[in-house]
Design goal:
A six-stranded parallel sheet has the order 3-19-15-16-17-18. A six-stranded mixed sheet has the order 6-5-4-9-12-13, with helices on both faces. Helices cover 33% and strands 25% of the residues. The chain is α/β, with parallel strands linked by helices and 424 residues long. InterPro entries: LarA-like, LarA-like_C, LarA-like_N, LarA_C, Ni_dep_LarA.
């Protein structure tokens, strides 16, 4: 069988003998036939919002409007979402002052080039864009405590808006259950301290902090509360296929519209695990495979399909390197993966350190499996993080076969690890 899996902005092609393939786990989003083109899907969602008045009616008496927008790490087709949102707002209130607030969460700031790539030149040139910086105390407002006890601190532009909106996309998320909706607020426009508290070791280790789970998920509970306190009123979220094209859109109340979107994505993304000694996965290509940090997401899909003591191969370009100094240094300075896990387990919520959550999940994976990365990241960087680097799929498979005891071990392929919910 021949495979073409995403890697950066290109694909990696390879073949595997049919008798070695245990399964190919793919979201049915790639087969889904949309009812209309991308623009029409968003327009239709805005015309018939879920559990909400029309956006133009909501905006009619609102002077200060803020739209929380996803950052450069998310493949949200914003150029199809933001223009009709702006048109609706200005139809209801031509005098409204509108700001686009980039939800960087704990990521680095988006560059102008990345913003143009996301929104198009016209939006970047003509609209007021503010990039959230979680460590900038001058733009942070304290709003009390979260249900978990952590501090709730959010960007002042979001808090002080007369009308707070958000755009985004919904995909399976490896500890928040699903992306989108309430996640635009927390972690999107939250302070450093609020993000750290929400992503604490106790929550990440919780059995319900897993892909596709919202019920009983402690991170989700805090996120919903933050969105409520921020008075997030209306969202436009989309579902996309492997080509990053919109296949459905959901607009309206931030809870109800998000719930409908999650139900739709779950129906397409759910796949039965096909356990194998070797599991090949990706992080869906650009922009989600820009660094090792983000690529842990794709590894979690393989984690759910890999046999005990098996090998995970992930193809992720990582043009941006490791993606987080704290994340990288945790592995660089540790004596073992087990030490990392114990250190994190011993920390209180208030002691959470930057990127700890990603370190915690990667350490969990590395404690059970060997991981080989096909990547452009430097070999030393990969090896410092207790993984192996391969230059291509042939080399990766050869290395994996040497690591497992089976002769001609079985292989499961997950072409896009961030698009599936692997059900055991």
């Amino acid at each position: 069988m021949k495979f073409d899996i995403p890697y950066g902005k290109e694909n990696i092609s390879f073949t595997i003998e049919n008798d070695r393939i245990e399964g190919v786990l793919e979201s049915r989003a790639n087969e889904y036939e949309p009812e209309a083109d991308q623009k029409a899907l968003v327009d239709s969602a805005l015309t018939d919002p879920i559990n909400s008045p029309d956006l133009k009616e909501i905006a009619r008496d609102k002077k200060e409007v803020v739209i929380i927008c996803s950052d450069h790490t998310r493949p949200v087709p914003s150029r199809f979402i933001i223009p009709p949102m702006l048109a609706k707002i200005r139809e209801g209130n031509p005098e409204a002052s509108i700001k686009l607030l980039i939800a960087t969460g704990f990521h680095r700031p988006s560059t102008e080039e990345e913003l143009v790539d996301k929104f198009g030149q016209k939006i970047v040139e003509n609209e007021e864009i503010i990039v959230h910086r979680s460590e900038n105390k001058d733009e942070i407002v304290h709003l009390g405590s979260l249900p978990s006890g952590g501090d709730l601190e959010l960007n002042k532009h979001a808090v002080e808006a007369d009308l707070l909106l958000a755009e985004g996309f919904i995909e399976p998320h490896f500890f928040a259950g699903f992306s989108g909706g309430r996640k635009s607020v927390l972690p999107g426009v939250a302070s450093r301290e609020t993000v750290l508290g929400n992503h604490c070791g106790e929550f990440i280790a919780h059995e319900n902090a897993r892909t596709g789970i919202l019920e009983g998920n402690p991170l989700h509970k805090d996120m919903l509360y933050a969105a409520e306190k921020a008075e997030l009123e209306f969202i436009v979220n989309v579902a996309i296929n492997q080509d990053k094209e919109i296949i459905n859109a959901f607009a309206g109340d931030y809870k109800k519209a998000h719930e409908k979107g999650c139900e739709f994505v779950a129906r397409l993304a759910g796949v039965k695990a096909a356990p194998a000694d070797i599991v090949i996965t990706t992080n869906g290509g650009y922009p989600l495979d820009q660094n090792i940090y983000q690529s842990v997401k794709g590894m979690t899909a393989a984690e759910a399909a890999c046999k005990e003591n098996g090998v995970i191969i992930i193809a992720a370009e990582c043009s941006d390197g490791h993606g987080g100094e704290g994340f990288y240094n945790t592995f660089l300075e540790a004596d073992s993966v087990q030490q990392i896990r114990e250190d994190i387990k011993s920390r209180d919520m208030s002691e959470t350190v930057p990127d700890q959550w990603e370190s915690q999940i990667l350490a969990r994976i590395l404690d059970k499996f060997e991981v080989i990365m096909i990547t452009g990241a430097p070999r030393k960087m990969v090896e410092d993080m207790y993984m192996y680097k391969a230059e291509n799929m042939d080399e990766a498979l050869s290395m994996a076969e040497d690591m497992v005891a089976e002769v001609k071990p079985g292989i499961t392929v997950i072409p896009d690890g961030v698009s599936v919910i692997v059900e055991k």
